[in-house]
Amino acid sequence: MSAISRDQVAHLANLARIEMNDRELDHMAAELDVIVEAVRSVSEAPIQDVPPTSHPIAMSNVLRDDVVEDGLTSEEALLNAPDAEDGQFKVPAILNED
């Protein structure tokens, strides 16, 4: 027996404001029936001994301790800059402001 009837598909199409002709309704009813059966077969899988997981492979974070280190000085940071002015990177203006 079909899980999804042609009338149910027509009702859903009407709710979704989708126009479907008779051939499309029959085709969609068959397609939805296949989908419902596939979901039903998956729901019947023996999963009593399978623990719930969020990922199929066990994962763990690899973290390291935060270590404070000296950073670059302003001069070192600007050493390879194409243009600098007053200790800052100089870039082309993108706004018509001064």
UniProtKB/TrEMBL annotation:
EC number of the protein: 6.3.5.-
Alphabetically ordered keywords of this record: ATP-binding, Ligase, Nucleotide-binding, Protein biosynthesis
Q: What InterPro entries does UniProt report for this protein, alphabetically?
A: Asp/Glu-ADT_sf_sub_c, GatC
Q: What Pfam families does UniProt report for this protein, alphabetically?
A: GatC
Tell me if Kinase is a UniProt keyword of this record: no
Name one molecular function that GO assigns to this entry: ATP binding
Tell me which Gene Ontology terms the entry assigns under biological process: glutaminyl-tRNAGln biosynthesis via transamidation; regulation of translational fidelity; translation
| Recorded catalytic activity of this chain's protein | L-glutamyl-tRNA(Gln) + L-glutamine + ATP + H2O = L-glutaminyl-tRNA(Gln) + L-glutamate + ADP + phosphate + H(+); L-aspartyl-tRNA(Asn) + L-glutamine + ATP + H2O = L-asparaginyl-tRNA(Asn) + L-glutamate + ADP + phosphate + 2 H(+)
Q: Which domain of life is it from?
A: Bacteria
- Complex formation: Heterotrimer of A, B and C subunits.
| Function statement | Allows the formation of correctly charged Asn-tRNA(Asn) or Gln-tRNA(Gln) through the transamidation of misacylated Asp-tRNA(Asn) or Glu-tRNA(Gln) in organisms which lack either or both of asparaginyl-tRNA or glutaminyl-tRNA synthetases. The reaction takes place in the presence of glutamine and ATP through an activated phospho-Asp-tRNA(Asn) or phospho-Glu-tRNA(Gln).
Task: Please state which protein family the record places this protein in.
Answer: Belongs to the GatC family.
What name does the UniProt record give this protein? Aspartyl/glutamyl-tRNA(Asn/Gln) amidotransferase subunit C
Gene symbol of the encoding locus: gatC
